[in-house]
Predict the structure.
Amino acid sequence: MESLIPGLRSWRRRSTSTIPAPRKYPDELRERAIREVRSTGRPIAHVAKDLGIHKEALRGWVRQAEADRGERDDRLTSAEHDELRQLREENAELRRANEILKAASVFFAQEIDRPRPSR
């Protein structure tokens, strides 16, 4: 599909909605696993094996829970991660709108400069 405005790439090629991937493990299982690691002090690999969870998945959940509690400063909290994702989406939308406006201004500038036939 060719754009009506010169210089404007088709914006329809980009998907505007993102559907998150389904979660492999339910939230209740995540919370239970994190609580068990924190309360018992057992190694993550043992808790993961007992609950049928991949040990690296559980390790990530525990690290994220620690970040959310302010116990780690080497990763973003869940709230910060959500805000960053939202700001990136908003930034992408603003860039698309800016691209459309630039192309439209070029188009209309060409229309104004075009000589009109005399009557």
In short: DSSP finds four helices and no strands in the chain. The helical segments are 27-40, 44-51, 55-68, 78-113. The mean pLDDT is 87. Residues 106 and 112 are 10 Å apart (CA to CA).
